[in-house]
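User: Sequence recovery, please. Input:
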C-alpha cells in the first residue's frame, strides 16, 4: 500500500488524498509536518515539503502534481486527466493556478484563522485577514467564476482541476469565508456540490478530527 507523508489539513496533502479517493486507490497517511527531519520523509521530499510519497514497492518522491501524474500512469480507473488535448491543457493550467495563485491567498487566510492558532501559537492578524477577504481573495474567485462553465471546471466529470480548486475552497470553508452567491453564483453552487461529495466529506472529517485533537492538547 502506498504511503502519503504529510498532514491531512495541508491543501497539497488534501489534493493527493482526494485523488486517491476518487481513483479508489488504497493508501495510508503517515503524519509528518513540513520541514520534519524524519529520514523516510526527507528521502521522499528533499526540500522538506509535504506531501512526500512512497509507492508500495518503495519508490519515493514528492510534489502533489507529480504524485497525481504518477497515479494516472499507474491506474487508469476514474481518470483525472481529460482525454482531449485542449481539455488536458486547461485542466493542467487550472491545477497550476490553484497550486500557486489560489493557494497563495486561500491558504494565507486558512493559516491566519485555523492552522496558525491551532498548531503554531499564532495570534490572528485581523488586518491581514481583512486584506485577504476584501482585496486578495475576490479577484481569484472572479477568475474562477469566469472559468466555470458547467458542473465541473473541465469536461463532464471530476478532473485534476476540480481536485485542486475544490481543495482550495475547503481552505475557505475552514476559514469561515463565505462565497457570495450574488457575486459568484456559479462558484457558490459548485462549492456546495463539491463539498457534498462523500470523498470530500470524509476528507473534511479527518481534518476536523486533527483540529479537535490540537485544541484538546
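Assistant: Recovered sequence (217 residues):
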Amino acid at each position: 500500500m502506498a504511503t502519503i507523508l504529510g498532514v491531512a489539513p495541508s491543501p497539497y496533502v488534501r489534493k493527493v488524498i482526494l485523488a486517491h479517493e476518487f481513483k479508489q486507490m488504497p493508501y495510508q497517511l503517515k503524519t509528518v509536518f513540513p520541514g520534519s527531519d524524519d529520514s523516510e520523509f526527507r528521502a521522499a521530499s528533499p526540500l522538506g515539503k509535504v506531501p512526500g510519497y512512497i509507492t508500495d514497492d518503495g519508490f519515493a518522491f514528492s510534489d502533489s502534481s507529480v504524485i497525481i501524474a504518477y497515479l494516472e500512469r499507474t491506474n487508469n480507473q476514474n481518470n483525472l486527466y481529460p482525454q482531449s488535448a485542449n481539455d488536458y491543457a486547461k485542466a493542467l493550467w487550472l491545477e497550476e493556478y490553484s497550486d500557486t495563485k489560489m493557494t497563495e491567498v486561500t491558504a494565507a487566510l486558512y493559516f491566519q484563522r485555523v492552522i496558525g492558532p491551532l498548531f503554531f501559537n499564532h495570534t490572528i492578524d485581523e488586518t491581514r485577514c481583512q486584506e485577504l477577504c476584501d482585496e486578495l481573495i475576490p479577484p481569484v474567485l472572479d477568475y474562477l467564476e469566469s472559468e466555470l462553465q458547467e458542473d465541473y471546471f473541465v469536461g463532464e466529470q471530476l478532473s485534476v482541476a476540480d481536485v485542486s480548486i475544490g481543495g482550495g475552497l475547503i481552505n475557505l470553508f475552514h476559514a469561515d469565508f463565505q462565497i457570495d452567491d450574488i457575486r459568484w453564483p456559479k462558484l457558490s453552487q459548485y462549492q456546495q456540490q463539491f463539498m457534498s461529495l462523500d470523498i470530500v466529506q470524509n476528507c473534511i472529517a479527518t481534518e476536523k478530527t486533527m483540529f479537535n485533537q490540537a485544541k484538546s492538547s
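The radius of gyration is 17 Å.
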